[in-house]
Write a structure and sequence with these properties.
Blueprint (H helix, E strand, L loop, with lengths): L2 H16 L17 H8 L6 H27 L18 H32 L11 H25 L3 H6 L20 H21 L5 H18 L9 H4 L5 H11 L10 H5 L4 H16 L1
Length: about 300
């Protein structure tokens, strides 16, 4: 079979999957009894277009995780006692900046990300994702999500670093750097091309794991997306609380790590962990700055 024939066959399968109507019976192994959670999940697809249904579910999960994670930081912006934890207290976000960010986000999420979510389930089936019962054990989900974080972080480090060169920064990544003092929802404020390219890191982990190690359940993908959003909103929140993860998990990047990147436009390219920047020496200026910042905070 030629490459052209193979590509045509895959396209035909993808189109067929896009038209598939869900059926609970097809998801249950012989002799297995669904749990209540599984029955609720599969009933959402029963008799409905699977691709569209999953796209809507993924979109709801995305929006809930993204804006739900941002809400506490938004509230903190209006609490004077919380301003002591701001990383750049001298820089205030104007209403015009906030609304511009929100309008851009909603446009990207609806017209760029939502179509990608609709296509994800059919594509996932083609590469062997598990879409049937039973759900995976929680320990397995936790392990897989941890691996996904490591893979995404490695990809993000190099892709992000590349976006800081020449025309890629000037024409694409500069959009994300409009905000030198980031606030939660700035996490996805970016050029559509950057959204698509960096988003591949979120997909790469589950895809590689599914191909080379073991099958990934489609529900694990939703949990991973929610966890990734939880992390990236925190990284852009603009606050360094004493209870932040970076204070009790030393290799976790956290807000102070990424806030410096926005403030200085250099270094700290990783998304989640600190080790790649440490290994490749792209956090030296940050370390010096952070030592001065925390020393000043302790003195006050």
């Amino acid at each position: 079979m030629t490459n052209k024939t193979t590509a045509a066959a895959l396209l035909d399968r993808l189109v067929a999957e896009l038209k598939t109507t869900g059926s609970i019976a097809s998801t249950i192994p012989s002799g297995y009894t669904l749990t209540r959670a599984e029955r609720m999940w599969f009933s959402l697809f029963d008799g409905h277009n699977e691709a569209i249904t999953f796209g809507i579910i993924a979109f709801v999960v995305h929006q809930t995780a993204y804006y739900g994670r941002y809400l506490p930081y938004y509230v903190c912006d209006y609490i004077p006692a919380m301003q002591r934890y701001k990383l750049q207290p001298d820089k205030q976000i104007t209403d015009d900046q906030w609304w511009k960010c929100l309008r851009s986000l909603l446009s990207s999420q609806i017209f760029v990300q939502l179509p990608m979510m609709v296509f994800f389930l059919p594509a996932a089936k083609l590469v062997g994702f598990d879409c049937t019962a039973p759900f995976p054990a929680l320990l397995r989900v936790f392990f897989q999500v941890c691996v996904f974080f490591v893979i995404e972080d490695f990809y993000h480090y190099w892709a992000h670093r590349l976006f800081h060169y020449g025309i890629l920064y000037k024409r694409i990544h500069k959009v994300h750097h409009e905000h030198t003092a980031p606030f939660g929802i700035v996490a996805e404020y970016a050029h559509p091309l950057e959204t698509a390219v960096l988003g591949q890191g979120t997909i790469a982990g589950p895809l590689l794991f599914n191909i080379f190690i073991e099958r990934v359940h489609i529900t694990t993908m939703l949990i991973w997306i929610a966890a990734r959003l939880w992390q990236t909103v925190e990284a852009h929140c603009g606050y360094d609380f004493p209870w932040s993860m970076s204070h009790w998990l030393p290799f976790w990047a956290g807000a102070s790590h990424h806030d410096y990147h926005h403030m200085a436009f250099v270094d700290n390219f990783a998304s989640t962990f600190r080790w790649w920047d440490r290994i490749f020496g792209t956090d030296r200026r940050y370390q010096a700055y952070e030592a001065r910042r925390t020393g000043k905070a302790k003195a006050e």
